Amino acid sequence: MSASENKNIVSHRAPEAVGAFPHAKRAGDLLFLSGIGPRKRGTKVIPGVTMDADGLVVSYNIAKQTIAVFENVRTVLEDAGASWNDILDVQVFLTNMKDDFATFNKLYAEHFAGEGNPNPTRTTVEINCLPTPINVELKVIASAASID
């Protein structure tokens, strides 16, 4: 696949992008996923986030958000023709490293490390905020070598 054959992937099952970008882009033997959060497609629902009548976040549950992010990543990978085990690298963005890292890290280990899981490289950073009222987002690079 040449540079001119790069392919955008838009999932019709994953949450809609919040900007002008595809869910993923295939370039040669690599698949680059855009940042993926825990939102649910076609709704304003964010698993693990409770909002008041004015739309302000009252509370959040990082475990529920993390599991939803993992599900959304899996969906985009599947819709691109790849699988969870094709993941090579993960960039994690947390809005509250102090309070959420231990919970996130435990769930990450359950889903990414160990037998039968991809065990990719990873970078985790704390950021001030994300474009929607979420507290975790993943940016993933996967192998596309087996995708036809």
Question: In words, what does this structure look like?
Answer:
The structure is a single chain. With 148 residues, the protein is an alpha+beta fold. The chain has one domain: 60s Ribosomal Protein L30, Chain: A, CATH 3.30.1330. Helices cover 24% and strands 27% of the residues. The strands form two sheets. Strands 1-2-3-8-6-7 form a six-stranded mixed β-sheet. It has a two-stranded antiparallel sheet with strand order 4-5. Helix 1 packs across helix 2. The longest helix is centred in the middle third of the chain and has 19 residues, at 62-80. It is globular.
What's the architecture in CATH terms?
2-Layer Sandwich
Radius of gyration, in angstroms, nearest whole number: 15 Å
Q: Give the biggest beta sheet.
A: 6 strands, mixed
Would you identify the regions where 5 or more consecutive residues have pLDDT less than 50? none
CATH topology tier name:
60s Ribosomal Protein L30, Chain: A
CATH class identity: Alpha Beta
β-strand amount: 25-35%
Morphology: globular
The count of strands amounts to 8
Mean pLDDT across every amino acid position: 93
What structural keywords apply?
single chain, alpha+beta, 6-stranded mixed β-sheet, 2 helices
Question: What is the topology?
Answer:
Elements: E1 7-9, E2 24-27, E3 30-33, E4 49-51, E5 57-60, H1 62-80, E6 87-94, H2 97-112, E7 121-126, E8 136-143
Parallel strand pairs: 6-7
Antiparallel strand pairs: 1-2, 2-3, 3-8, 4-5, 6-8
Helix pairs in contact: 1-2
